[in-house]
Amino acid sequence: MNKKTVITCAVTGSAPTPEKTKATPVTPEQIARSALDAVAAGAAVCHIHVRDPETAKPSMKFEYYEEVVKRIRDAGSDMIINLTTGPGARYNPSDDDPLVPDVGTEYVGPARRTEHVEALKPEICSLDVATMNFGERAFMNVPRHMRIMADSIKAAGVKPELEVFDTGHIELCKQLIKEGHIDAPPYFQLCLGISYGATATPEAMMHMRDRLPDGAPWSAFGISRMQFPMVAQAVLLGGNVRVGLEDNIYLGPGELAPSNAALVERAATIIENLGSSVATPDEARRILGL
Fold this sequence. Notes:
The chain is built from 9 helices and 18 strands. It is an alpha/beta fold and 290 residues long.
């Protein structure tokens, strides 16, 4: 185990909706406030998606990212801001002509997916290194686009959080590192339990950890009811952890989490009960190589 464990809070994502839980932050103000509350509860990093304030649906609009980041920075928080680049990678082929996208497709070019990162310059942004079935749609991130995105992120002085959903994705990361698109030390996020990637089990997490480059800092999460078991497993294996409403809306069976802060507090308790302690944002910067 590490003496210090970094907690990332994934604040809103795209899966939870206000219909499922009223705790879902939707507007830029709500997202920023939820992130600030999560940091007060022990998170060092906040992973941020944005939503349309009118419909609550996932959005890629720059002005929403800009407002969230401005509100956090104006509040004087020392949190590590982590902006997503995941939206814009989902493809749903039509049955008659697979080259024609069907309803549910949200697919744009690599430059569009990183433009808010280049402008706002958070300390971290996610970089999904995965092409896979993602529920009923394809999650498409081909190596050529990964190189373009990685180069843009690097030029902006931002550290990519390499989101990997299976061991093959780790091997692609190693190739991108070898080619110079990603600087050392690389930072990995092991994403477990998402259909149809690696399962949220101790064996899967250990196997993925063992495939990482030597000395690479890493974090992990499981979705839904496996969120907290995977927190414990990551701590025991020497990693860091991620929780938040993006991945799970429950504190326990049938008990909806009232906030992101409540999920962070539960993770902090697990970390401390296992003998580690929660990293501050500045300690997290050292741990993650920022």
